[in-house]
Structures are given as structure tokens and as C-alpha cells.
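**User:**
Make up any protein.

**Assistant:**
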Amino acid sequence: RIDLPAVTLPREAWKQIAFSVPDLEGDQVHDIGWKIEIAPQEPPWALGKVYVDDIRVTGPMEYTIDLNRQRMEFGEPTPFSTNDCDARLDQGMLCLRTGKANAAQAFTGNYYMRSASLEAEVIVDAGDTAGLILRGQGCRRYYALGFSGRDRVSISKWEDGKRTDLASREFPWMYGKTYSLRAEAREDCLTLRIGNETVLEVRDGSLAYGMLGVCQGEGTASRWSGFHIAASV
């Protein structure tokens, strides 16, 4: 628990309290709230009322996800929600494996993120489709940016569970090698970077907001780490 500076509440008057969530060094926010204390000079008991109204969590966000600090809860690796895959945490990595007849996703973050960037490192051990998700509105509607076949990368749009490639090109890649991916959405511009190279850029504004995450195709095994998120809602 991180305690922020104390605030003295006036009697019989409203007071606005605002604070910024501090850097959590790769951990996640589990709860945000208040602890009410009486002044030390008061008796050991007190009667009274405190009214709390109009709670808002707003503003841009930027944070990392340290998978060494995450855990499995109800069969899911925090802070992700997965679909159609076996997901686990192992040696500071998010490990995903899908069967032979389905695609899979792991979502994280606010549902209403608009301008956003997601960086992560990936190792593909089997299969040929693995990438980052932008503006995910569920397992059937999202943008996928990354490896889309052997020696190929794409920026794709999934709608009603059907994939459409918006941009695609050849890009040799290898199993067992670590690749740094960066996906970015700014208004209707979608960009994919691998390492220091911008490999694809396209414009499409049909999905205006959504969650971030990772996705992969059927029969794929991948390992993810080094997540960095910057976004606004």
C-alpha cells in the first residue's frame, strides 16, 4: 500500500481532493481509496459523518507491466483477461498456447482507450501468427499488428471474427528469437514498429477506442515480456 500526503477535511464544507497515481514499478493498481483518521488529540472514539461524492479517475496513463510481480488469479494472469488459450506466467513472461482450431487474445487496460501505444517483446516458439492488439472491443473486434504468417507482417482488422489485412509486407523472422514490437494508434493512423524500424503504417478509423493486448493464431505458442503502455481515454 502506498500512502499519499494527508489532507485535513474542514467541518461542514466540501473539499476537492485530487492526486496522481504514482509509478508502481511494474505492479498494478488493485484499489484506490481513502483512509479516514481522527486527529491525535481527539478521544479514542468519535462520532461523525464523511460524505464522498463525484469520484473520477481521469487523464492520460503511462505504465509498465512487470510480469515477475504478477500472479495467477482465477486461472488468469494479472492484469490480463484471456480468451481461447492456455495462459500462464513463467520466468517473468506471459506464455500463451492455442489449439489447432482457434485464435486467441489476452486483453488489458481501459476499455475506452483512444490514442495509445503498446510495446512488448515476443518470442514465437510455434505457429506463425502473433501480434499486438489495439482498440480491442472484444474477441471479435480489434486491430492486430505483428507477425501474420511465415516471413510476413501485417496490420489487420478483425470484425465479427473475420480478419482483413489493411497493410502487409514480407519480413523474415525466426522461431526462438526475441523481437521488440511497438503498435501505436493516433486518431485514424495505425503504426507497427519492429525494433527501430517502422515496418507498416495505415489509416483506418472504423474502431475508435478499445483495450490493448496480444493475439495469436491457431497452433501458436508465444512468450511475452517488457510491456509498456501509454494511452489516453
In short: The two ends are 26 Å apart (CA to CA).
